[in-house]
Structures are given as C-alpha cells and as structure tokens.
Amino acid sequence: MRMMFVTWAWPTHFFPLAQLAWAARAEGHEVVVAAPPELSPTITAAGLPAAAVGAGLDIRPLAGRFFASLAARDSPLEWSEMRAWGTGNLATYRKIAAAMLDDTVAYARAYRPDVVVHDPTSFAGPIAAADTGALPVRHIWGADYTIRTREFEAAALEPLCERLGLPGVDSVGAVTVDPCPPGMQVPAPVRRLPVRFAPYNGAAEVPRWLIGLAGRPRVCVLGSTAVAYFTDRHVSPLPVVTRALAGTGVEILAIGADRDRGDLGPGASQVRHVPATALHLVLPHCDLLVHQGGGGAMMTALAAGIPQVTLPLFTDHVFNSRRLAAAGAGRWIFANSADVDGVRRELLDVLHTPGYRTAARALGAEMAAQPPASDVVAHLAEMSV
C-alpha cells in the first residue's frame, strides 16, 4: 500500500500524523509526507520522507486581522456568531489549499497513492484523493473542533475542485482517524476510526536533570506557537503563572523560547527555563500543565495522566478547554480575564484537589485502551482494496 500524508506548514498539525506514518512504514508500506518546503526539516527529523509541494506562504496577512480581533475581546468568540460567516470561516485554509493544490495533485498523480491521509485543515489532501481515486482519510488531533465547519466546506472548496474538473469533494473523507479519548469527544455524523495516541512534539533530547523526583510540586508552563505567531499579546502565560505561584514552593518549568516572557515578579527564582526539549518528554515528570489550550499540548498531558489549567484566547483553544473542564480534568480562564489572584485560585485548586488528577488519569486510560496505529493501518489497507 502507498500512503500519502498531506499537511500544511505548521508543525503541530504534522505531529499527530507521525505515529500513523511510522506504523505504516513498520508494516512495510510506502509512505511520503507532502507539505510546503518549510516543513521538510520537521518531517525528516521525524524519520519520514518529505515531498515539498507548493511554495512558502506567510499566513499572517491572511488571518492576522481575525486573530487581532480575538486578542481585543473581553469574552470568547462563540460559534453562534461565527456560523453566520459561512464559508468565511474557511478563507485562510482555502488559500493555503490553493497554494498547495497544483503541486500536491501533480505529486499524487505520479505517486499513485492508495490512501491519502490529511489533517482536517489541509484541504489539498481530500481534493488530491478525489482526483486520483485514493481512499480519503481525515486525521484529527483531539476533540473535533473542525467538524463544525463541515456544512460550509463543500461550497468553500468548489472553486478548487472546478480547477481539476471535479464535481466536488467530501472533506471528511471515508473515515476519520480519531486519537481523542471518547470521554472528551463531541458527537458528529462521521465514521470514526479510533487510534491510541502516541505523544510526539518533535525531535529532542531528554534533559538529565529531569529524570527522578522533583521533591516538590512541578508545574509545566507552555506558550502557544499559534498565539505567539499571530499576535503581539499573550505570548506566554508564564508571567501571570509565576506571580500566581510566588512563595508556594512549586517548581515551574518554562518550556520553549518565547520571544517575550515579561517580568516574572517575585516567583522568578522558582522558574527553570527549558528551551530545547519536547513536551512529551517533560510532562510525565510534572504534576500540572498550564498552557493556552492547544490540542496537541492537551492530548499530550492527558496521555501522561496529568491535569491542566488553560488560559485560552483563540476559538479552538476555548473549545478544547471547555471539553477538558467538562471531563473534570482541568480548569480554564479566558486569557483576557486572567489576573494573578484568579489564576492562583485555579492553580492551587487543581494542584490540591485529587479529583482532577483522577479524571486526567481516567482519560489517559481511555486513550491507552484504543487500538494501536498498526491496527488502523491494517484497517485502511483493507478499505483501500
């Protein structure tokens, strides 16, 4: 079987696809990951072959105004308001697909894949599958936020399909590969193929000091790459978290190289900066993750069985945070409403209330009970015949 994975140039959209690609290669199938050239180093660092398709595209001018409007809000933007925008919800992803489409289809025609796997925002994938007759497979990365735009996707993609003489495309494909724990997933009229989540946040070394007990509670703090990229505000939750935990004796691990951490206040001595490692290597040694609600970070923490506090700003991050809280595995405060006292209350509540960890471990157990990626590969091989 030949499998072609399609994603655009955002590493956290590629990472969830890696385990299925690894499993396919381990079973002797042919695999290639088609993505814009700037993602090739990330793909090859994961030990997978990359096919560069399309040209580099700066998406900040495409989506910057939308994200700037989110940064100025006093409350989350709700789907009831967004739904009125119709196909406008997909404008950025349609432009990304348009920039990748010709190269992706040309590569698919030459490669002749049996299966095309794509993340739910990489619409060049299902169109290439329709053009070549390959089995289209949608691969999500957590709670299914993007399913809400399905009603608009056919109309949004119609001009791209017309370029190839296609009557249209079903953007959810034949099946959706789903690593989300069932207790956190949303109902949707799609055929789901559950898969065990394998945490992967990029190639990295394990810091030697990390192995072993910390001797005191350890809180990991992670900034969002998307928030950092699209806005000049809310780059990292670290300053408010550090001030909130000042004097508590909690060790704070600051992951990543945020461009502006700000004044950390009196809790600065409790912070250990970890600029060059991957989240999946750190979280098994922590008691709590604080982040901005991204799906990859949330799933990685659940796999480690640790609770979370999120400070979301973007709409998908709010969606994820609500699903997490509903499952009992964490708490959240809208980023623009977060102050030191409020964050302190939430952090100490989650750290010291066993129910949050119990719920997180239960979701982690659900994830571990799902079929391994090798079973999913075998199922896709049968479907593609």
Provide the β-strand percentage band. Answer: 5-15%
Name of the CATH homologous superfamily of the largest domain? Glycogen Phosphorylase B
Radius of gyration: 21 Å
Name the helicity range.
Answer: 40-55%
Subunit organisation of the chains? single chain
Signal peptide: 1-23
Protein name: Glycosyl transferase
Domain Erythromycin biosynthesis protein CIII-like C-terminal: 251-383
GO molecular function, one term: hexosyltransferase activity
Kindly describe this structure.
It comes from Winogradskya consettensis. This is Glycosyl transferase. Keywords: Glycosyltransferase, Signal, Transferase. GO terms for molecular function: hexosyltransferase activity; UDP-glycosyltransferase activity. One of its GO terms (biological process) is antibiotic biosynthetic process. By secondary structure, the protein is of the alpha/beta class. It folds into two domains: 2-196 and 370-384, 3-Layer(aba) Sandwich (Rossmann fold); 208-368, 3-Layer(aba) Sandwich (Rossmann fold), CATH 3.40.50.2000. It is 42% helix and 14% strand. It is built from 15 helices and 13 strands. It has a seven-stranded parallel beta sheet, with helices on both faces. Strands 10-9-8-11-12-13 form a six-stranded parallel beta sheet, with helices on both faces. Helix 7 (150-163) links the parallel strand 5 (135-139) and strand 6 (175-178). Helix 1 crosses helix 15 (373-384), helix 5 (91-111) packs parallel to helix 6 (124-132) and helix 9 (238-244) packs across helix 13 (340-352).
